């Protein structure tokens, strides 16, 4: 299974914004996404928003990236078209299944 | 000791039956696979399979033929219930995994062979542990329960990290944890029964094995505790849900304040 379009978009933005190699950008985003308990295959824009503002700044500063705040602000605003593609392609997250299993009625 | 085992069996049957009906009712409305599989697992592997096997074991000395018939029916229900759990773990937690697909089909083949061979050829649902045919079915059923525990608890560990960031639903995360704990209790009970069988007590007649009643009581109590966890997971009282949500609303605030 391939990674979510939101994950791919975030990697591209980081690759260009930080001047990193594709491998380095993907590795960093993958690490942060996993640290947040998320899956690169099902990553959604709302999740990237939280990660970009709360986890990525520390990671990027520790790697000597400049203008971290501007880069993270850009990463937190995933375009609607990318999110729509992620929504259409993403497999159902188990959390959604377990939400439904306890729904009253 | 017997009243404790009977009470635990009654608690187990009532709670598991209620959970099974709840999930199958939900499945009839949503037409979704996970609730259908869990409902089947609780109904066949839980209520019908487990109860039939318990009753069959209890009448082993007084009515051996009835005991064998009940054992055969129970084995079918029990193995089907275990496979439903394994299918749920594969399709919900890792639908794209070829390795887990292979594991599921391997377990299904072993349990089908176990049933066909033991019931069809020998008429014995559970061969004694000195027979090599005791082990394939026992190990395959244990493997499905181990899979259940690993899938639920490892996913819950991820949900805890999401909760700290406000990226997960607290009741859903608690439901995954309770379902995993139900798996732990079920695994502990089944390992105890298997160990008792291999060590001797369950292979001996009732009157020759005083340890058998103790093992049955402990195993039934464990699975009853698992049933309580399942009930809290899938039929939670409103007060329990409110407590889970109130704890979650405190936790992210604490995390953010660090």
Uncertain stretches of chain B: none
Range of strand content of chain B: under 5%
- Helix-strand makeup class of chain A: mainly alpha
Number of helices of chain A: 7
Query: From the alpha-carbon coordinates, what is the Rg of chain A to the nearest angstrom?
Result: 14 Å
* Averaged pLDDT of chain A: 92
| Separation of the first and last Cα atoms of chain B | 50 Å
**Beta-strand residue fraction of chain A:** under 5%
Mean pLDDT over the full residue set of chain B: 88
Identify the overall geometry of chain A: elongated
Q: Which of globular, elongated, flat, extended, rod-shaped describes the shape of chain B?
A: globular
Roughly how much helix do the residues of chain B carry, as a percent range? over 70%
**What is the domain tally of chain A?**
1
The Rg value of chain B, from CA coordinates, equals 19 Å
The number of helices of chain B is 8
Head-to-tail CA distance between termini of chain A: 35 Å
Q: Biggest interface in this structure?
A: A-B, 23 and 33 residues
Account of the 3D structure:
- The complex is a heterodimer of chains A (105) and B (258).
- Chain A has one domain (5-101).
- Chain A has helices at 5-18, 22-35, 45-54, 56-62, 68-75, 80-89, 94-101.
- With 105 residues, chain A is mainly α.
- Chain A is built from seven helices and no strands.
- In chain A, 37% of the residues are buried.
- In chain A, helix 1 packs across helix 2 (22-35).
- Chain A is 68% helix and 0% strand.
- Chain B contains eight helices and no strands.
- With 258 residues, chain B is mostly helical.
- Chain B is globular and about 55 Å long.
- Classes of the chains: A mainly alpha (105), B mainly alpha (258).
- Chain A binds chain B through residues 1, 35-39, 41, 47, 50-51, 54-55, 91-92, 94-95, 97-103, and chain B through 23, 26, 30, 32, 34-35, 38, 92-93, 95-96, 155, 157-162, 165-169, 171-173, 175-176, 179, 233-234, 236, 241.
